[in-house]
Amino acid sequence: MLDGKKTLFSGMQATGNLTLGNYLGALKNWVSIADEYQTFYSVVDMHSITVRQDPAELRKRARTLLTLYIAAGLDPEKNCIYYQSHVSGHAELAWILNCFTYMGELSRMTQFKDKAAKHADNINAGLFTYPVLMAADILLYQADVVPVGIDQKQHLEITRDIAMRFNSVYGDVFTIPEVYIGKSGAKIMSLQDPSKKMSKSDENPNGSIYLMDDPDTIIRKCKRAVTDSEAVVRYREEQPGIKNLIDIYCACLDKIPAEAEREFDGKGYGEFKAAVGEAVVSVLKPLQDRFADLTKNKDYLDSVIKNNAEKAAYFSNKTLRKVQKKVGFPERIR
Ligand code: TRP
Fold first, then answer.
1. pLDDT tens by residue, 282-332
2. Which residues are part of the catalytic machinery?
3. Helices 269-296, 215-223: crossing angle, 10 deg rounding
4. Counting atoms of ligand 1 from 1, which one is nearest the CA of 149?
5. Which of 28, 225, 241, 297 could hold 191 in an S-S bridge, CB 3.0 to 4.6 Å?
């Protein structure tokens, strides 16, 4: 508890171009709950190098992502927005936690199995211990809640297991975090194949709306979205393309599917798709404008990056020193 508020930690990787799915499924959610918590929102660049990255590209994307956090509405005075790699405690705690994590439990992680299959030529130890670094991220700040997508739930479970294991040996050192899965309905699917999640790495650029797409592109992509021949705007599993467009429409305008069904009752797909496009533009355009303003203000962004890294270091060091003492590292001489 800090200032009477519970602590929230979450992070996102700066790989690929962020999509509307990332925004509606994660960022928008982060913004809506930020005021209730003492928050730490990290750009987890250390996780990114578990697969090969182009250094210049990674640096650029990390800055873009950090800027997007702010453009999406997270006030960097109130929310600690920072790069994971700027706070050395993440790596230091991860090492200690590695010694409290079993090979067996790590090898059961579905994300590891998926990524190992995808990057068969580079199954490095970092990819294997990725969840331990994630546990360190969360436990360093004594986070009570961690908003993540459903795909990260297993990593939250192992984080809790590691924390409880450590606590059972050394006493109450870590807060046991709760996973916070955002509202369902915000899972956005590909516009070209509604059985697949909208993804940063989709080969078909028409399947995803990117946060930086201009209004014309957004409207065109919505118009081309794959639907069906039912010719009714109904929210049901049998019409996955239309269902996805309703989800997008509702998430953008904070409506519920029944409202959308009523609004478009008796109307054609052309009109509905145009409205979805407008809804997306109404959300993304202001975000893009704020992004452009922030990008112009290099000094301001640099000061946010510096100040928040210091703030994160301050809080994380409190936990780190306690842990180091518990495991028996010699006291620092001051
Ligand atoms: N693994 C998460 C993802 O890919 C990102 C992440 C890293 C994270 N550390 C975290 C999320 C800590 C929440 C808390 O989405």
1. 999 999 999 999 999 999 999 999 999 999 999 999 999 999 999 999 999
2. 115, 197, 200
3. 150
4. 15
5. 225
